[in-house]
Amino acid sequence: MSEPVEFYWGNAHLTGASCDFRSDAITTPSLGTLHAISKATLNDDVYGEDETTRHFEEHIARICGKEAAAFVVSGTMANQLSLCALAQAPCSILADATAHIIHFEAGGVANLSGATVHPVRPSNGHYLTLEDIQKHAAVGPVALERCPVTIVSLENTAHGNVIPLHELRAIKAWTDGQGIAVHIDGARIWHAVAGGGGSLKDLAACCDAMTLCFGKGLAAPIGAAVVGAASLVRRVKQLRQSIGGGVRKVGPMAAAAWQAVLDSFGPGSVDVRGVLRSTHDTARGLAEMWTSLGGKFLRRVETNLIWLDLKDIGVEKAAFNDLACRHKVRVRAPRIVVHPQISPDALYRLGLVFHEVMASKLDIHGSGSDGIASKL
């Protein structure tokens, strides 16, 4: 007989999150979150009548220093609704060439906003700077055959790297002068704050629309938000309805997200819980282990993401993943994501993977019968 569903709440071992380094989106909701769901109101949010949802949106807008917020079901939806609300045809969106909105949102920019994407490789290898944007955005009179950049989209953190607050402020000051809107994909904005990148209010002041995800690292079962001016948020909610994102009895989802924020971040604009900062410490510990074995990185380790340079040691991603499975941990190489529910045993097992890979330094091509699992 299977265990009751309630047993899974707050049990990262049972769900597998405790040994899963693939993403912080797999974190397991707590028993406190389940309790918050049970106390949520159940009125109609499409009509704007659900108290829990309305109060949560007001709270998120307040701690971000913005006029309004809209609760949506996912970070991808939040990003796409933000961009669509900001887009003015003809529209080109300048973004990091590795951005989530380009590679992991199923072509939503083209499908929903009718915009073209202007991908740019950051000159510093980590995040877009004002210099990058000035170099690639169409400034002044634009030739008739060019599609003008009307939106700059930034990720913070950018694959684990915090964009400095002074850089964000410089970008916003310049784009304001050019009539260009700024969107921040804040899926891990909580980590940017915990990593010393400024308060939520500081960061939200540097853009016209910012998204926040409640599932990545915070362990909400569902949900994200868009914050911005009241007129923008109204447009976002209208667009949300047009794609079927207007949920009627959304109160339990909003309650769960609110509890996750309180548990993992706190009630205000700055991190007071220290939960996310602890994952940064853990990531630095893993990074030190990797470098002590002779390993290198693709990016600086600043928050909870580690990017291993596997090409440097001649190991393919599939082979590394295969070896990790043998040691009963899950990874999506070359990225290692640390979240608050990773267990000490999982860290130990990942350490074994590091040692085994670096001890062999084999030139591996593939996985399975031809990979590291059969050669070590």
CATH architecture of the largest domain, by name, is 3-Layer(aba) Sandwich
Instruction: Give the tally of β-strands.
Output: 9
Helix residue percentage: 40-55%
Q: Regarding CATH, which class of the largest domain? A: Alpha Beta
CATH topology of the largest domain: Aspartate Aminotransferase, domain 2
Number of domains: 2
Order of helices and strands: HHHEHEHHEHEHEHHEEHHHEHEHH
What is the overall silhouette?
A: globular
User: What structural category arises from helix and sheet content?
Assistant: alpha/beta
Distance between the termini: 39 Å
How are the strands of the largest sheet arranged? 1-7-6-5-4-2-3
Count of helices? 16
Mean pLDDT: 92
Report the sheet with the most strands, covering strand number, pairing sense and barrel closure: 7 strands, mixed
CATH superfamily of the largest domain: Type I PLP-dependent aspartate aminotransferase-like (Major domain)
The share of residues in extended strands comes to 5-15%
Compute the gyration radius: what is it? 21 Å
Uncertain residue ranges: 362-376
Put the structure in a nutshell:
By secondary structure, this protein is an alpha/beta fold. It has 16 helices and 9 strands. Helix 3 packs parallel to helix 12 (251-264).
What would you say this structure looks like, in words?
Residues 20-311 form the Aromatic amino acid beta-eliminating lyase/threonine aldolase domain. Keywords: Lyase, Pyridoxal phosphate. It holds the Pfam family Beta_elim_lyase. The chain is 41% helix and 12% strand. The protein has 376 residues and is an alpha/beta fold. The protein has 2 domains: 5-24 and 274-375, Aspartate Aminotransferase, domain 1, CATH 3.90.1150; 40-264, Aspartate Aminotransferase, domain 2, CATH 3.40.640.10. A 7-stranded mixed β-sheet has the order 1-7-6-5-4-2-3, sandwiched between helices. Strands 8-9 form a two-stranded antiparallel sheet. Helix 8 (165-178) links the parallel strand 4 and strand 5 (181-186). Helix 2 (31-38) runs antiparallel to helix 12 (251-264), helix 3 runs parallel beside helix 12 and helix 4 crosses helix 11 (230-242). It is globular. The two termini are 39 Å apart. Mean pLDDT is 92; it is low at 362-376.
